[in-house]
Specification:
Blueprint lengths: L6 H52 L6 E4 L4 E8 L2 E14 L5 E3 L2 E7 L2 E8 L2 E3 L3 E12 L8 H9 L2 E16 L3 E16 L4 E7 L1
Length: about 210
């Protein structure tokens, strides 16, 4: 004999199954929303890190370095106490560590002895590329004819000791171009102390700051 099914019981089972399916669907949607929220949060944190690094490293302009090369080739070397007339070829180097080119204006480097100017050279305007060093060949002439009479005593003593000390200074003005949209003014300063061995007619030391 076939078993009779109570209609009320069947309806109850159907509703229970529907409620269970609905509950599972809601739980699945809730988990998906949580995962989506986690992904969005991770992406937002990643974006913040990228923007922070970009602003701190890429978009931060540093002052380039201006230096005199320690490679010097003498072209004229006339020293007779208490006077000198010296010409040498060397390089001026502009080191740009930025993520953008550095365009600089004409710059004058002044060479002094005992605070008095004995020579100068013009560094022509140019550009140092992204994270590179621009090397510029220059000819420097030093002559004691501009020195005051009061300096002759110190010069005579130094030449008698076989050396000649002078300083080279310059201030270069220019702009760093970042991402081709932003330009920031930056200056490069040079202060060098050069010591020449007048007996050997060679460079003894060169220190730049």
């Amino acid at each position: 004999m076939a078993e009779k099914i109570n209609p009320q019981q069947a309806n109850g089972n159907t509703r229970s199954d529907e409620e269970s399916a609905t509950s599972q669907s809601k739980e699945l949607k809730r988990k998906k929303r949580i995962k989506l929220a986690i992904y969005i949060a991770i992406f937002a944190v990643f974006q913040i890190i990228v923007i922070t690094v970009f602003g701190a490293v890429i978009m931060r302009a540093k002052s380039p370095k201006l230096r005199l090369s320690n490679s010097i080739e003498f072209q004229k070397f006339n020293v007779s106490s208490p006077s000198f007339d010296i010409t040498f070829a060397t390089q001026v180097r502009v080191k740009n560590s930025n993520f953008g080119p550095y365009k600089f204006d004409n710059t004058t480097a002044v060479f002094t002895y005992g605070g008095a100017t004995v020579g100068q050279v013009t560094i022509p305007k140019s550009k140092a590329g992204i994270k590179s060093t621009k090397k510029i060949n220059v000819i420097v002439s030093l002559n004691s004819s501009r020195l005051p009479n009061s300096a002759s005593g110190d010069l005579s003593r130094e030449l008698a000791a076989g050396m000649l000390t002078f300083s080279g200074t310059a201030r270069m003005n220019g702009k760093v171009e970042l991402m081709w949209i932003m330009k920031k003014k930056k200056s490069a300063n040079m202060t060098c102390t050069v010591i020449i061995d007048v007996n050997e007619k060679m460079l003894r030391s060169l220190e730049c700051k």
